[in-house]
């Protein structure tokens, strides 16, 4: 009996132990986790990808950093291609795999954390391919996919087996750019990022319906699920605002990814415009060089012609001198004859009576000869005077004067033209000291040295130098040509020469040189000079060498709205701010369009930030009209000779574009406000009209039962519908009479101008489309696209009715306001022609009646 009872007790004790054992396991505390190793895809922007230095970054990295701060658990993250990451996780080399999506097959291997992101996976295809709408339309195509991706299973499940696998998302898009892949399946965020990065976003479309949507998880291999509670609890400690801050950092100021923003497309277009402008500048520079060569050739030809004229004049002078000598000798001979005749007469005085008649005849003959000789001499003197006058005139026209210098006394004489060139008169001392007082001080030593060399070598004098005119103190450039005259002992006795004023030519040459290295609009250095200076300064003594890239925010919007003259004034002000903010030795250049660059030798990052802060402060004080100056900067510093300059440029530009993503939208928003304010200042009638149309649109939206957000959007579009008139001439807007055809064509441009202005602003792309279409008609005869019927969105159909009603019921410069009855009759007459007939009926029944009640309240 005791034995049986003992067995009974033993049985119950064992049973109780078995019951308590699983409870102990279930209630046991999870193991303490001090560190976690994580592997993820390193090519899935913006969730995880590498920057230009190869460092891993992205949304998931920032979330893990917060997890580490919240929990104190050390996290070691490794990034690799997705296929390798998956294989490494399967081998047990890591505790957690991130950026993984769910599938039934994987669920047998992994335990999943809570989902933290939803990814749409559409089909991407080249624009010239039509008919691809869903997975069934992929039959016959080779589809590019990422190795190990869920899309492979989805495609195969739908019968698509002709697949080309690539290691990374970037490799797929690169293959698309190289025309190796025309269709690919990839998550929307990385696909659009690399399409924009590689500049082929306009070459590809994606299906309107997604192939599938998946969620991102963090997964633990089954059997190691002790990590899962710690992971879920740790990420639950991160607040919603902290998650939103991370998303804002990587997606931009709105929830829209930065690569889908209109500004990104605008930046691509601006880059293309900058490239085309640089190409045009290069062509213009080449043309200018050819013009300089041609002008130089013409100058040399003119100089050769002048030398030829000088030689001819010298030849004429020599001939004239020879003839004078001949005539003088003849006169001397004649005088000798006369003397001999007189002697004969004295000797034969006794025979005078006999030969008196003969002597008289002889005298007559001599007088005739003297008259002939005198006449010939007069003619020769006239020729000489004419040649001298021609010589003086040629000197005057050529701004040239001649001189003679006695090399023994150092005294000189010169022509009147040289007096004018030197700014002196006859009273000025024509001595060595007097000449020294005319030569520019910077050139006196050089000219003296050259003159000594000419005397020593007895060579020709050919020299250009500067003088200071005596009478007005003006600095002038002169070109002196001279020749040493020798005596019989071959000693230098005189310097004969001419001096020409070549100031205009020198200034023209200096201007050509200046323009070849400077930007014509701002006066800063141009791209050519910048590239040469970058090569020159890239030496060890200038390290650290910092390169700053700068871009003017909103220039295209300002040009479209206020005109290129205002845009040019803005660029000039930006250039002046950069000059004031930089140091004297810094190199500032305008590379083209709205792009500037600064070279800072011997400047590190701290000094660079100080310079940029100074520029920001100066820019904040400047305005062009009512427009603020906004500049985005990026910079990179070279510290070692092994660093590559092109890579330095790329890093600085990437840094600048990253800043521009945050600073540009704010600038555009301010500019939109300025445009509205300026338009209303130009035309008060437009301001009142815009507010009335806005109120009518709001009433119409409420009558249609639209959502609150849609009503507010419709109200805003009504206020902005005529914003494009900012670019229309004020005289046309305020013209009291009928517009001409040319003026009417100018007015009809305002919907397109308004579209361009609003489409540059984040969140206004749809409103821009409504503004573009607010002058379209129900019958398709409107402008600018000629849309018809239901092709028109609802909002522009409403704006068209409200705009027409307010125009008819408001006073104009050329007519009085129409009555409501006439306006309603006109709307009914054009229903189904100009306006949506259903909307016209609702507008008359529900909006106009309320509008009348507000204007004419009941006396009761």
| Measured distance between first and last alpha carbons | 110 Å
Q: Show unreliable segments.
A: 1-29, 253-260, 856-860
Helical proportion? 55-70%
Largest sheet: 6 strands, mixed
Mean pLDDT reading: 81
Number of strands: 25
Question: Structural class of the helix and strand makeup?
Answer: alpha+beta
Please state the overall shape, judged from the principal axes of the Cα atoms.
elongated
Note the total helix count: 29
Strand-residue proportion: 15-25%
Calculate Rg over CA atoms.
47 Å
What does this 3D model show about the protein?
The radius of gyration is 47 Å and the shape is elongated. The longest helix has 86 residues, at 262-347. Strand 15 and strand 16 form a beta hairpin. The strands form six sheets. Strands 1, 5, 6, 7, 8 and 14 form a six-stranded mixed β-sheet that branches. It has a five-stranded mixed β-sheet with strand order 11-10-12-9-13. A five-stranded antiparallel β-sheet has the order 16-15-19-18-17, sandwiched between helices. 56% of the residues lie in helices and 16% in strands. It is built from 29 helices and 25 strands. Helix 17 packs antiparallel against helix 18 and helix 25 runs antiparallel to helix 26 (765-772). By secondary structure, it is of the alpha+beta class. The termini are far apart.
